[in-house]
Amino acid sequence: MRFNKFVGTILLSIPALLAKAEEVTFKVLAVNGTPILNINGQQYQMEAGEYPQYKVKVNVDSFPVQYNYIVATDANNAVSEQFVRTRQKDEKALNEFFNRSLTVKKHPELPRAYEAFPYFEQSKLYDDSFVSTIIVTCDPAQLQALYADTEAKTKIPAVVVYASPYAVKTFKEAQFALSGQSTREVPKLSYKISNLKDGKKELYNRSSIKLRAEHMDYSYIRDKIYGDIVNSLGVPTAQNTFTRVFINGRDIGLFDLSDDITNNRYLRETFNKGEKFTAENPIYKADCDGLGGIYGELAYYGDDITNPNYAIYTYKGDDVTQDSTVHVAQDIIPLLKEIDAYKNGLAQSFSLDTESFLKSMAMEFLAGAVDNYWNKPGNYYLFKDTAKNLWYFHDADFHYSFGVDSDPDLMLNTPLAQYPPLFANENIRKDRAPLDALRSHPDVEAHFRDIIARLLKTSFNPSAIFPRIDSLADLIREDAEWDISIKPKENPNPTSELYLAENIDGFDIDTKSENPQGVPGGFSIKYYIKTRANNVANELQIQIPAQFESDLGTVVSPDANAKEMKGNVDDGDDKANGSIKINSWNMSLTVFLLLITLLFY
Fold first, then answer.
1. Distance CA 335, CA 333 (A)
2. Is a pLDDT exceeding 50 seen at residue 65?
């Protein structure tokens, strides 16, 4: 009996001996300084991996492990995280970011209103469960020259590092430029990064991206949630997520990372399942000069290309041998003539994908898209798939939406019967040639109203979108507070000081409040969505369900983890984390005890 008790004691001791020697990898991203891992006062110097990653392997006695990071900025100064991290047993080692407590957060998925667009391929770049990091290194003199003339279309060479919780990717021959139009006037600039190629490798099937400053949006998420709902409609749209940006070691801020719509790689992935096109496909951008009364409403003004109403369309394709006006005459005027013929009953159709166009208009109407086609005809693209002889309307730039400070009362309260509203400071008529022509057919109008009703029952339903807003806001709140704290911004000569948040309170109000009082001059996102949905439902006699419908499933975000972690074996993390590492002494003792046990049993 005593012997059996002895054997039992030995057998019970073996797991404890094995458990005491687990080797765990810790990884952190630090743009400046050298990180130190701190576990209960015991500090471990971390070694540099691929910049900005640092890592260290530590023997851990028990789980969960509580720890934080310290970054030594120089020999005499260090900054310590003021929160405690926790690592559970068998948890993978992610690239954590210094001084950010939240690394990965999965969000509630939106229900699909319609099936996905059939030619679209997701990119893992747009996994929105984390805030990525982009580090730009360029010549300081060239950067200052770029800032000195923000209206110039200059590109400068740069080394660009993209880092996520799962990977670090470096592009040594990137091109860096300013982006946007009115955003060039404000303190926080927007950027474009192109030539993201390393040999044949690109950044998750993207070679060009936009970094949108969201300077007018206290919430930072209007572009994001607008795009999420458009995804639920099965309509082609630029994808977006969040990233923190550093240039030459300097804090720049939190940005919306978005697709560059005119880039060939994006067009392939969106309209052709990632395959190369067999023909040249033209793409155009339409703008709006509301004060001058010239805008891209898609109306036909005759065949004279010198008509100023055609100057609003700009060719953005690859053919640089001909002037933009030549392309407009060849492509846009014939399309507008088709629309005009349909409007006047001389044709049964026109070569625009009317289904995605109608869905885009339904979303503009519900979301109060102030600066888009139905209100101020511009901020959209026309892309032609030549092989299909089909044009696609591609909406863009959604930050002026969901009650932001630009005629918010009109956007919230104008009913469908009176839409679009007339703006007192704009010379824009209410007619919209293709939309008016389509809606003049009772069956099309009924279908259009069905699209609106479907949105109110699915992805535009507060029960669907509010939890997602909460989750996205939780993910980026620390970075939003960091962004607000960065002063001055990088534009040395801003001509507009609009929309600069002074503290994090504006962010909290804009993302969390359901009360009418939002940020200065506007409404909070939730108040706008809730009120707009109720107003439209009352007008169109739609019954909004308390719980959203999800009969077509949900819009699933791409997962950057799926492939990257599987192939990320450069430092043995998959072996080191969550698996048992036994040192030689423990191994010898364990074998000895096992032999003794077997001998006397």
1. 5
2. yes
Inter-axis angle of helices 584-600 and 2-19, to 10 degrees? 160
Instruction: Give the count of beta carbons closer than 10 Å to the beta carbon of residue 501.
Output: 20
Residues 6+ apart with CB under 8 A from 591: none
**In angstroms, what CA-CA distances link 165 with 29, 224, 243, 291, 468?**
9, 20, 12, 46, 21
- Which residue type occupies 196? L
For 525-562, b where at least 16 C-beta lie within 10 A, e where not — what string? bbbbbbbbbebbbeeeebebeeebbeebeebebbebbe
Position of tokens 């707009």?
532
**Tokens for 368?**
């109060």
pLDDT in tens, 430-451: 999 999 999 999 999 999 999 9
465-503 residue pLDDT tens: 999 999 999 999 999 999 999 999 999 888 876 656 789
Q: What is the pLDDT of residue 177?
A: 97
> Which position has the token pair 């739609």?
542
**Alpha-carbon torsion 54, 59, 65, 66, what sign?**
negative
Locus of tokens 């950010």: 100
Alpha helices in 103-154 (DSSP H): 140-148
Helix 525-540 and helix 504-512: axis angle, to 10°? 20
Nearest CA to 133 among 93, 186, 170, 92? 170
Mean pLDDT to the nearest integer, 224-250: 98
Helix (H, G, I), strand (E, B), or coil: what is residue 166?
coil
All domains of the chain in start order, with CATH: 22-101 (2.60.40.10), 124-495+507-540 (no CATH)
Model pLDDT for residues 143-154, shown as the tens digit of each residue = 999 999 988 889
Q: Within 10 Å of residue 45's Cβ, how many Cβ atoms?
A: 11
d(CA 131, CA 96): 10
Q: What is the 3-state secondary structure (H, E, C) of 12-25?
A: HHHHHHHHCCEEEE
